[in-house]
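Morning run. Coffee first, then this:
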Amino acid sequence: MLKFEWFRYRVFSGAEIKYSITGGNVGGLFTIDQRSGTVTLAAALDHELSHQHQLEVTAEAGGAAARAQLVVQVGDVNDNAPEFVRPAPRITVIEEDDRDLPATIAREDEPLQWTSWSSREGSTAKQPEG
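And here it is:
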């Protein structure tokens, strides 16, 4: 969410302002509140389809108009489901066992920036080595 307060204080100084997206909104991925200037997502963004979106936002009041460019950078995350080498094993840990026994599950998919796992007690994540 992004709000265009700059227009209100620097350009139109208290006038009733109408905001609109006047360029670059391919596929209608973004919406803008005409009264507040708040820009929000109307649909999910996908890095594989577009790394960046450039919008033109127009503010109009009393016959005058001002425009601003909004550039949205889309980060790349691994959104593919993991493919396990073997079916996931069933792992049992005895209550109050403090030996820190490791469990390894191999996967074959695109590299991740972060590997995460979960248990009934919580979840944790660590950055991969290398």
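Residues 5-11 form the longest helix (7 residues). Good start to the day.
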